[in-house]
Amino acid sequence: MKFIRSEVIGHGHYAPAKVLTNDDMAQMVETSDEWITTRTGIKARHVVEDEINSDLSLKAAQMALKTAQIGAEDLDVVILATVTPDYTTPATAIRIASQLGVKPGTPAFDMSAACSGFVYALAMADNMIRLGQAKTALVIGAETLSKITDWTDRNTCVLFGDGAGAVVLRAHEGNGNSQDVGILATKLFADGTHFDNLRTTGGVSATQNAGFVSMDGKEVFKFAVNSMPEAAEAAMQEAGITAQEVDWIIPHQANIRIIENVGKKLNISDEKVIVNIANYGNTSAATIPMALSERMSDGTIKKGDVVVLTAMGAGFTWGGAVIRL
Q: Of 32, 184, 213, 281, which has the fewest beta carbons less than 10 angstroms from its beta carbon?
């Protein structure tokens, strides 16, 4: 009996041209390159000027379609993970689908799970493909966090950046075991009791404005260093994959100390942990697909490699995924 998997057949990434270095940040708030680097691992972040979320998403999506060697008319669903959509409604994914030239009538929607958003969206697309509701899916993670960053708050403004990443998934027949190509497992979690530890200060219904990111850094760090490796481990167990079989792990790029802790807790060597936080900062739902696409583009991550994804975000949400490329 054949088992339907979701194979990654295309990837793309994009970041705005404008870069704010740590030295630039030191001109805006009381901080320094050394302070930011030692505590976060961030050296620079990209921020939009005239672009909006759909602009970033479109560039990443176009690259993903190109590397997949398919056209937009081949897509059966478009899913965008974001907390910074163009407008409250309609979904930014609908706009992107139209700009790409997706067939009219093709479902497209946004998903909000903060920094875990891409893993959540990946799970949704994978489920649709497994159920036969779609054969080919475009999954995007994109953020313009600079729009909800308080640039006078030195505790948060140094952390965030803008960017987009995308993958194209296609139905692929497997045998239902850990040797299959494609998404082998996804595991999703949430706990709303941590709502106030990482959220925005505003929202459409609550305040009629977007607000700014508000964070209790200590609580977020404490939760992330445990939840991210636990989510990865849960996905690995479901996939039937051991740490020795993992070629790469891509943790959400929030803080270098969190990233390093994830690898250590999973007994995965530092050389297998993908890190690009220095160049982009925390781009929320975009961090994992951007890192994945970059490393696939430069040949670091190759066909056949087993890649583990794990993330934790506002609310709190967290999740893990295992993919054989």
A: 32
**Residue 225 CB neighbours (<10 A):** 20
Query: Is pTM, for the whole model, over 0.85?
Result: yes
List the catalytic residue out of 13, 22, 115, 172.
Answer: 115
Q: Is 115 labeled as catalytic in the residue annotation?
A: yes
Report the pLDDT averaged over residues 137-155.
Answer: 97
Q: At what angle do helices 287-297 and 117-131 cross, to 10 degrees?
A: 70
Least Cα distance to 39 among 214, 198, 218, 212 occurs for 218
Q: Is 157 a catalytic residue?
A: no
pLDDT average, residue stretch 119-146:
98
Query: Where does CATH 3.40.47.10 sit in the chain?
Result: 3-174, 182-324
CATH number of 3-174: 3.40.47.10
Catalytic-labelled residue, pool 197, 252, 276, 279: 252
The answer for residues whose C-beta is within 8 angstroms of residue 246's C-beta and 6 or more apart is: 236, 266, 268, 272, 306, 307, 308
Of 122, 99, 95, whose CA–CA distance to 109 is shortest? Answer: 95
pLDDT at 2: 82
Task: Summarize pLDDT for 167-225 with one digit per residue, the tens.
Answer: 999 999 999 999 999 999 999 999 999 999 999 999 999 999 999 999 999 999 999 99
Out of 3.40.47.10, 3.90.230.10, 3.30.830.10, 2.40.10.10, which CATH number does the structure's domain 182-324 have? Answer: 3.40.47.10
Indicate the length of the chain as a whole number. 325
Return the ∠ at Cα 235 (arms to 229 and 238), rounded to 5°. 140
Instruction: Please count the other Cβ atoms lying within 10 Å of the Cβ belonging to residue 107.
Output: 17
Distance CA 244, CA 293 (A): 23
Element (H, E) at 248: strand 248-251
CA-based radius of gyration for the chain: 18
In angstroms, rounded to a whole number, what is the distance separating the alpha carbons of residues 201 and 197?
11
Active-site residue, selected from the candidate residues 53, 197, 255, 282? 282
